[in-house]
Amino acid sequence: MRQHVNPLSCNFNQIEKIPSLSEMFGDSKSKLHLDIGCAAGEFLFDLALFNTSWNYLGIEIREKLIKNAKLKVIEREIKNLYFIFGNANNILNDVQNKFIIKNLKSISFNFPDPWFKKRHHKRRVIQTGFINMLSNSLQRGTLIFIKTDVKDLFDYMDCTISSNVNFKTIDKEDLNYFESFNPNKVKTDREKYVILNQLDIFEKIYIKI
Ligand SMILES: C[S@@+](CC[C@H](N)C(=O)[O-])C[C@H]1O[C@@H](n2cnc3c(N)ncnc32)[C@H](O)[C@@H]1O
After folding, report:
1. Counting CB atoms within 10 angstroms of each CB, which of 134, 179, 181, 207 has the fewest?
2. Whole-structure pTM over 0.70, yes or no?
């Protein structure tokens, strides 16, 4: 069992300097997807190969995973994939990094850490303030995907996002209309485990209106 990392620890107050989109990607004009809590990045490596016309960005709080993922990107000479180490909340709240949010076409929160105890809910990556900040900075039409096997966490995330009037839910069947990648074609590591163990998956898609 891996030890959960406490995102509120002061270890994550210092944010690494994020390069510009043209430094991150071969073609900075491609549509941009962000995966928050990407772990070792396997989902994004698969997506980056599967759909080369998009750029993919992963943020992960476990430094070793990001170091390894970055090495793999260099070794494999992948030009549409970039990884950032740190607490996604701190990184995206930083004014210097608003350009990331403004350029996004979609964001995924795949199987975020559940932090079951009520007193730990403040460690969950989806928070009202964070969603309000996204709703103020995202372009209209940007999609947010959430997915988890924990019903309580799903209800919490759904309630937090749905409480913001700038987001409404859309059906998976309507994804093509929004020119998004189809997230069903690629499974995350946690999702593979959940499917293998025949656990429930709860998911929803929102659009910024
Ligand atoms: C349960 S794992 C799921 C990993 C992957 N998304 C998947 O579906 O297989 C949750 C991941 O989110 C990361 N994480 C948790 N809080 C985070 C935060 N505030 N910022 C960035 N990453 C975070 C954890 O370190 C962990 O790798």
Report:
1. 179
2. yes
